Amino acid sequence: MDERYFWPSVAYALKTTKPLVDVLRLVDSEKEPAMGFIYGAMDAAKEQIAKNLGGEESTYKEIWKILDDKWDFQLHRDLHAAAYYLNPQFKWESNFSTHPEIKSGLSKCMERLIPDPSDFTKVDEQLDEYRYKRGFFGMRAALGSYKTHALVEWWDHFGDQVMELRFFAMRVPGLTCSSSACERNWSTFNQVHTKRRNRLSTTKLNSLVYIMYNKKLKLRYLQNRSSKKDDDPLINQDLPSDDEWIANPNDEESTKVGDEELNLDVDEMANEIRGEDDIGDEDNEIVFDDVDGFEDGLNNYEYDLPIPNDPNSNHNSVDENND
């Protein structure tokens, strides 16, 4: 390998991809929804790439074209532009973009999300209050906190004089941009529904996943609170969830979480539903009592089914009484 070409290629790759990695970290962050920041982050990433390559158009033109094609035809949505406009961290800055697609996206979102004509007119008028920092938006507290407070919380706190706009502004920037939380939940389903545990009812499967997923969230919250470290979702093998609201942040349980507590077991999850300490092995059948309003109970928890052609299996067939 010729080092004369290798290391310059590595440097070029780092200069062009690092700003994009920062955008991915923003989108997959669990601190707050990224909808209000994704549009500005993409613009900032493009500008940073151009700066890293020396600022000459000939050096970054090709990269920009690739990004624009992906953004315009696959990623960009009107919600991104509307949330960008409703974010004072961008709107109230001198470098706020004046691209026509921003106001166009805002108008389209208003038409879609505000069907009532009177509310639509009120929101359109109230945008001037936000745009020119009038009323509560001009208060010292509002001007001093819009860069530090979470966007949805800021609108909730200072939008009392413009209730219709407040509802719209909390709804749009509060949306998520990533499907990571769903994918993490699917992985939990895969841990519960295995080849040997493949006859769980839908109700029971959802209940086990609910308990396992929330227990993981709770353990992660206790660990993060004790270590006071922010997870990097791009390098952690056990990805954090965006649904921290499921776990109770006011839980008084001790923050000291041992490694043994992280070894979650499906049988342990079943015990929590059942309300007992041990799961019996007789006849490979467990009958659950009615828990939390389950109409028929959670029956037939696990069947120890043999694996086909498994020489170690002690079963030749599944007992018909277990069906």
UniProtKB/TrEMBL annotation:
Residues 227-258, 304-323 are annotated as: Disordered. It comes from the Eukaryota. Residues 147-212 form the HAT C-terminal dimerisation domain. InterPro entries: HATC_C_dom, RNaseH-like_sf. GO terms for molecular function: protein dimerization activity. This is HAT C-terminal dimerisation domain-containing protein. It comes from Dipteronia sinensis.
